Amino acid sequence: MQTKREGRLIRFGSAAAWLSVTTALMAQGTTPSTLAPASSSAHQIFDLSLFVIAITGGIFLVVGGLLTIALVRFRARKSDPLTEPAQIYGSTQIELAWTVIPGLIVVVLFLATARIIFAIQDAPRPAAAVDVTAIGHQFWWEFRYPKYGVVAANELHIPVSSDAAPKPTFLKLTSADVNHSFWVPQLAGKTDLIANHVNTMWIDPKAAGLYLGQCAQFCGSQHAMMLLRVYVDSPEQFDAWIKNQQQPGRKETQVAAGRKVFETQACMNCHAVSGTVATGRFGPDLTHLMSRATLASGAMDNTPQNLRQWIKAPEMFKRGALMPAMQLNDEQLDQVTAYLETLK
Ligand code: HEC
Ligand SMILES: [Cu+2]
User: Fold this and answer.
1) Among candidate residues 333, 258, 323, 245, the one with its CA nearest the CA of residue 289
2) Element (H or E) spanning 233, and its range?
3) Assigned CATH topology for domain 253-341
4) 153 CB under 6 A from ligand 1?
5) Fold for domain 4-121?
């Protein structure tokens, strides 16, 4: 039979195993993880967190150890006299020690944190830096590249940066409505997007690939579906992506009927397709909708079925999304979907 002590050991062991497996999975980057930094500022934040964990872990061991010793050594015994033990009314020395030492520890933690904050904020800006303006909307992201004349949404493309050829991306962040927060844990800390105010941050991912993030500030009913995908491209991929985004929306004749639906229904009041009469700004720019892997800020994969269903009934995917169901009939739905499918 298992003794009480063995049971406790097993429970402790399985909790420790669970914790280490989760940590290992997170460190591999299987989830958006702060433990797998891939950009300079994320590295600095990660190193700082290890330093803080080392100090606070040390404090935990000392306090926990002393507490355990006190509990074991001074526990009540049958042989103890029944009289009250000696009472101690304060010791200036001990009180000074436990005030001054924690005070010094807090100062050390404060200075270490302040140093990292200033180092990140004051980082020099190389001439090759890419500028992006990110605008938060309920419940999607707008990305503008002023130097390139590009407007994109939900999936941010930036070039990879290296120590030999640094090419960081500098972001200006603001909001069209309520507060949002830009958070891609592997790339940097959080920065809020606030209406009528511009915050700045920068990222310099050292490895190409896809990094996931999400809005980290509660911004309404579909806050949880305001996901964020950052594609870090090789220089060639990034140039090709920019070149494609600069093209006006395709006007293929075989989907003219669908384009007509788009331009005569209210779609064009909220959505832009460059080179056409559609110049709406309330919803995502759709000029290159097909260059995105997901729809509606990561709510679903970008497939023709999902696209049709989204246009028919957005609330099926994102209840409370600010796009109304436009009551199109089946033929119009097929036509407008076919048109949007050509917007590569
Ligand atoms: C009242 C404004 C409004 C109208 C009208 C409107 N939309 Fe939208 N649309 C939005 C908003 C806002 C979003 C973003 C929703 C979200 O992700 O939360 C959106 C998202 C989309 C998306 C996904 C875009 C992406 O980048 O993932 C597509 C596609 C789309 N709309 C197509 C249409 C079509 C087609 C019509 C016309 C039948 C239409 N919309 C009418 C506001 C509108
Ligand atoms: Cu948000």
Assistant:
1) 245
2) strand 227-233
3) Immunoglobulin-like (2.60.40)
4) yes
5) Helix Hairpins (1.10.287)
pTM for the full predicted model: 0.86
Eight-class DSSP state of 45 = H
Residue 25 has pLDDT above 80, yes or no: no
| Helices 330-341 and 304-312: angle between axes, nearest 10 degrees | 130
Ligand 1 contact via 241 beta carbon (within 6 Å) = no
Helix axes 92-121 and 40-73, enclosed angle (nearest 10): 160
- Tell how strand 180-183 and strand 191-193 pair up: antiparallel
If residue 114 lies in a helix (H) or strand (E), which one and from where to where?
Answer: helix 92-121
For ligand 1, the distance from its centroid to the CA atom of residue 198, given in whole angstroms, is: 26
Q: For residue 284, which ligand has an atom nearest its CA?
A: 1
Looking at the CA of 312, which ligand is closest? 1
Q: What is the rounded distance in angstroms from the CA atom of residue 108 to the CA atom of residue 16?
A: 30
**Residue nearest to ligand 1 atom 42, measured at CA:** 323
pLDDT tens-digit readout, 160-173:
999 888 999 999 99
144 beta partners: 133, 151
Ligand 1 contact, 336 CB (< 6 A)? yes
CA distances from 234 to 158, 203, 237, 280 (A): 9, 15, 5, 32
What residue spans define the domains of the chain?
4-121, 253-341
| Residues 6+ away with beta carbon under 8 Å from 46 | 34, 35, 37
Contact 39, 207 (CB under 8 A): no
pLDDT in tens, 174-222: 999 999 999 999 999 999 999 999 999 999 999 999 999 999 999 999 9
Q: Read off the pLDDT of residues 290-327 as tens digits, 9 standing for 90 and up.
A: 999 999 999 999 999 999 999 999 999 999 999 999 99
For residue 23, report the phi and psi dihedrals to the nearest 5 degrees.
-60, -40
Number of C-beta neighbours around residue 238 at 10 A? 19
